[in-house]
Automatic annotation (TrEMBL):
GO terms for cellular component: plasma membrane. Its cofactor is Mg(2+). Coiled coil: none annotated. PANTHER family: DEHYDRODOLICHYL DIPHOSPHATE SYNTHASE COMPLEX SUBUNIT DHDDS, DEHYDRODOLICHYL DIPHOSPHATE SYNTHASE FAMILY MEMBER. Catalyzes the condensation of isopentenyl diphosphate (IPP) with allylic pyrophosphates generating different type of terpenoids. Substrate binds at residues 34-38, 50, 78-80, 84, 202. The keyword Metal-binding applies. This is Isoprenyl transferase. The active site is at residues 33, 81. The gene is uppS. One of its GO terms (biological process) is polyprenol biosynthetic process.
Length: 253
């Protein structure tokens, strides 16, 4: 429920001020869900919903910077989404390409594409690669743009990359099996070298991961927000971070 403007602003400021700076997440994963339902709820086209969702991204990245987050992973398109009707998928891919170019043009964040680029149209893959190249030297918030991403596929790709590397080192199959360990998968994930997500946020009221960062989220905290992604507000973000800070993280212990 939205508060009247003066009270809302006061509440938001107090909420931000209450966050403990020593308990902020380093890495936040975000499942951007609800664009289509948001569009239907106001009688607009699906493409309009996706555009509204794309417009929200810069705000959320700025909010993340404000609380000291180092890495944000945005799940913008899953491998399953590639099976959507051609017209909708074409619109969505075009919106993603535009959004990635606009984010890169700000030179504010370092972008990294995570996903199976070979499954995407060449124009989309090229837009993602160009954004990576254009922001490679940017210092600041690291933004993983997950497009054509699926958690199971990422793990399969990691195992495949390990097998290729081991083969190039001259190991036979028995030697690979003997030395294979979980660390070999971690070292070949799309997000290798990054901290695992401390907090995963999903909008639109759905309470499932759907394959997002399956390996990396083993010890993540989850926060499910009722708002559709285009309606996701700073106060919703701050509540998610506050909930994370209030939890006792056991990390499997």
């Amino acid at each position: 429920m939205r508060l009247p403007h003066p009270l809302y602003g006061l509440y938001e400021r107090r909420l931000a001020a209450s966050l403990p700076s020593d308990r902020m997440p380093r890495h936040i994963g975000v499942i951007l869900d609800g664009n289509r339902r948001w569009a239907r709820s106001i009688g607009k086209s699906t493409a309009r919903g996706h555009r509204a969702g794309a417009d929200k991204i810069g705000e959320v990245l700025a909010w993340s910077e404000d609380v000291g987050v180092e890495v944000v992973t945005l799940w913008m398109l899953s491998t399953d989404n590639l099976n959507r009707p051609a017209a909708e998928l074409g619109d969505l891919l075009g919106i993603i390409e535009d959004a990635v170019r606009e984010l890169a043009a700000t030179r504010r964040w370092r972008l990294q594409a995570v996903g199976s680029l070979e499954m995407l149209p060449e124009s989309t893959a090229q837009a993602l690669r160009a954004a990576e190249d254009a922001t490679r030297d940017v210092v600041g918030l690291h933004v993983n743009v997950a497009v054509g991403y699926g958690g199971r596929r990422e793990i399969a790709d990691a195992v495949r990359a390990y097998l290729r590397q081991a083969s190039e080192q001259g190991l036979d199959l028995d030697e690979m099996a003997e030395q294979f360990d979980v660390e070999h998968i971690a070292a070949h994930l799309y997000t290798k070298g990054q901290p695992d997500p401390d907090l995963v946020i999903r909008t639109s009221g759905e309470q499932r991961l759907g394959g997002f960062l399956l390996w990396q989220s083993a010890h993540s905290e989850f926060y499910f927000c009722e708002a559709y992604w285009p309606d996701f507000r700073r106060v919703d973000f701050l509540r998610a971070v506050r909930a994370y800070a209030a939890r006792e993280r056991r990390l499997g212990r």
